[in-house]
Write a structure and sequence with these properties.
Elements lengths: L1 H9 L5 E7 L2 E7 L5 E8 L8 E9 L9 H15 L12 H4 E5 L4 E4 L2 E6 L5 E5 L3 E11 L8 E8 L7 E7 L8 E7 L8 E3 L10 E7 L3 E6 L2 E7 L15 E8 L19 E14 L5 H8 L17 H14 E4 L17
Antiparallel strand pairs: 1-2, 3-4, 5-8, 6-7, 7-18, 8-17, 9-14, 9-18, 10-11, 10-17, 11-12, 12-13, 13-19, 14-15, 15-16
Helix pairs in contact: 1-5
Keywords: Apoplast, Cell wall, Cell wall biogenesis/degradation, Disulfide bond, Glycoprotein, Glycosidase, Hydrolase, Secreted, Transferase
Enzyme class: transferase
Pfam families: Glyco_hydro_16 (PF00722), PP2C (PF00481), XET_C (PF06955)
Length: 358
């Protein structure tokens, strides 16, 4: 029921089809996720049956769905939005090629790139990881990931953004493995100036091991949104006016990794990694980076460009927070799938973090 509600909310909109038959030609126009099919109806007579029965055979699809899975539709929509918002400077919204943008950060022999898919493996000798070649300041980054199947207890798959140094900023997706038949937990975290301890954990409304799902960060001057299949699961708002630190000055790289964390990852470390099930394998694909990059020799100038308020699409006034439909999705996810929130952990904090009280 919940999943259906999410789905309906996610794809809500308008659809229409117009078909004209003129002078022996069929003219078809469609809008949205609607489909026109050319079919043939056949009637079958069965000597053992008193009445004939008929069935349809699909001969040809006459339309293509106007859906954001299509690169041309995605580009058209963004161009229209950019025009409406008066944006002259817009970064590329297309998917990126892994080898052009990323490189191995450790254990390259445990990473395999085949076509558009990147496979990470973990055994008792090593995990592995990759990182982007450049850093970004504000925007959106996403990847489709299929998690380790079966007994994944003790393992952690990470997809995250991070700057460097002890006082770094960081945004985390961490997928905490579990024993066979038990659900994955998705842990998110936000570090600002080297201080984290802002964990939330969610279960998911699907099995993340059977297919790819999209996990994304959206980051601007006003808010940080963690999303799963474009459904927001966490929002971290800019509350600097309340004395809460917010990441806005340090460019962050984009990282992925698979590693052993059986000292804490599964049931607080009580369940250890079963190495007889190794290698553990996860696959990434369909990376998208719609962000302001800090490439070039003049990093200061690039930082000034990226930090300019309302200069890019992701920092326009319409992007300050969740839209109405996304707020409904977020509320439902929080009520149904949030299993841990640091802001409610009074046993852990003698004094709650400032953002929890505002």
């Amino acid at each position: 029921m919940f999943q259906e509600a999410l789905k309906n909310d996610y794809i809500s909109g308008s659809t229409a089809i117009v078909v004209l038959w003129m002078n022996g030609q069929i003219l078809v126009g469609n809008l949205g996720d609607s489909k026109a099919l050319l079919c043939s109806r056949r009637t079958h007579f069965d000597q053992d049956s008193e009445a004939p029965f008929s069935f349809l055979t699909i001969l040809e699809e006459l339309t293509r769905d106007h859906h954001h899975d299509r690169d041309d539709e995605k580009s058209r929509s963004f161009e229209a939005l950019a025009k409406d918002e008066g944006i002259e400077n817009r970064e590329s919204w297309a998917s990126v090629n892994f080898t052009d943008v990323f490189e191995s950060s450790w254990a390259p022999d445990h990473i395999a790139v085949v076509g558009d898919q990147v496979t990470l493996s973990l055994d008792n000798s090593s995990g592995c990881g990759f990182e982007s070649k450049i850093k970004y300041l504000f925007g959106k980054a996403s990847a489709q990931i299929k998690l380790v199947d079966g007994d994944s207890a003790g393992t952690v798959i990470a997809f995250y953004m991070s700057s460097e140094g002890a006082n770094h900023d960081e945004l985390d997706f961490e997928f905490l493995g579990n024993v066979s038949g038990e659900p994955y937990l998705v842990q998110t975290n936000v570090y600002v100036n080297g201080i984290g301890d802002r964990e939330q954990r969610h279960s998911l409304w699907f099995d993340p091991t059977t297919d790819f799902h999209t996990y994304s960060f959206f980051w601007n001057h006003h808010t940080i949104i963690f999303s799963v299949d474009e459904i927001p699961i966490r929002v971290f708002q800019n509350k600097e006016k309340k004395g809460v630190a917010y990441p806005k000055n340090q460019g962050m790289g984009i990282y992925g990794s698979l590693w052993n964390a059986d000292d804490w990852a599964t049931q607080g470390g009580r369940v250890k990694t079963n190495w007889s099930h190794s290698p553990f394998v996860t696959t990434f694909r369909s990376f998208e980076i719609d962000a302001c990059d800090l490439s070039g020799e003049d990093i200061a100038a690039a930082g000034a460009k990226c930090g300019k308020l309302a200069h890019f699409l992701w920092d326009k006034p319409a992007m300050k927070g969740l839209k109405k439909s996304k707020k409904r999705q977020f509320k439902m996810v929080q009520s149904k799938y949030l299993v841990y929130d640091y802001c409610k952990d009074t046993a852990r904090f003698t004094q709650m973090p400032k953002e929890c009280s505002h």
